[in-house]
Design goal:
- It is built from 10 helices and no strands.
- The chain has 196 residues and is an all-alpha fold.
- The chain has one domain.
- The two termini are 20 Å apart.
Length: 196
């Protein structure tokens, strides 16, 4: 059922504001010195988790549109996806600056020698490619190739979960939860393709 854009004009500002809440919360925790004994590690973990959450929310919007018939879900999909890139960029910056002190040789060494970091970096590169090609002008220029490229968001999410599993190592409950959500979303997409 079509919706009047005038009636949903509040939606994008509301989603944008809500998407900034994790950043405001992290800034407040920094100001309150509430990041525990290893603030840099806590910041890296928190921004990584928010990246994954925004990725999963982005992937859930199309199924929600199909199930509910509400176009509002796809109207905010690009914005939510860009917030996934935003938090991924903060996550990577925290890792480079606070954990490795912008020591470029060490950064390059970590990227090449630690598989879980390589996998996380590949996920970031995919998100950057999707972010760069997200404007409408790129959609028109790329044609069918745009859809092919943007299907890589599923690969980015899989890589992000593998990255998380490798980091957690022992307590995998959170990774299992995120992985289960992704499995449901992938299963739904596969089911839709079979039926179409």
């Amino acid at each position: 059922m079509a919706q009047n854009p005038a009636r949903t004009g509040w939606l994008k500002p509301a989603v944008f504001s809500a998407s900034l809440i994790p950043l405001v919360w992290l800034i407040w925790r920094i100001a309150a010195d509430d990041l525990g004994p290893d603030p840099a590690q806590e910041l890296a973990i928190a921004t990584g988790e928010w990246t994954l959450r925004f990725l999963l929310i982005t992937l859930s919007l199309t199924p929600l549109r199909h199930i509910s018939g509400q176009l509002a879900f796809v109207r905010v999909r690009r914005m939510v996806g860009l917030f996934a890139l935003f938090y991924a960029s903060i996550h990577f910056t925290v890792w480079m600056s606070l954990l490795l002190g912008f020591r470029w040789f060490a950064i390059g060494e970590e990227l090449l020698e630690r598989p879980y970091i390589t996998i996380g970096f590949l996920a970031l590169l995919i998100l950057i490619a999707l972010g760069v090609t997200s404007p409408k002008v790129m959609v028109r220029r790329m044609g069918k190739n745009w859809k092919r490229l943007h299907r890589l968001v599923y690969l980015a999410a899989i890589l992000a979960i593998i990255h998380l599993i490798w980091i957690l190592r022992t307590d995998l409950s959170e990774a299992v939860l995120y992985g289960s959500v992704l499995a449901i979303l992938l299963g739904y997409r596969f089911w839709r393709r079979i039926l179409s």
